[in-house]
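hey so i finally got around to running the thing on that chain from the lab meeting. sorry it took forever, my laptop kept dying and i had to restart like 3 times. anyway pasting the input first so we r on the same page abt which one it is
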Amino acid sequence: MPASPSATLTVESTGVVVRARGDFDFASCQALAAALDEATGAGLPVLVDVTRVSFMDAACLGEIARTRERLATAGRELRVVGAQGVVRRIFELTDLAAVLSD
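ok and heres what got predicted. didnt touch it at all, straight out
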């Protein structure tokens, strides 16, 4: 059974790191959305680590896209690291492949 989805926040000198873990779909996306909202409020660039994410659907991808737009409006950047397999493919199939940093 996959791990329950979770997202934790760490503030570092270069920005805020959101570490996501588990399978994220429409029903479980709130954990990621809450972490992204909190990260946006920190006034720093945001790095989303999806190394331990095995699935992410369009609802969660939408949360990342909205966060990216909010940060861009404020002159800050959002990057995603650790995308593999299905998770990487969903970024590549959308306009969000540019946020991948691997």
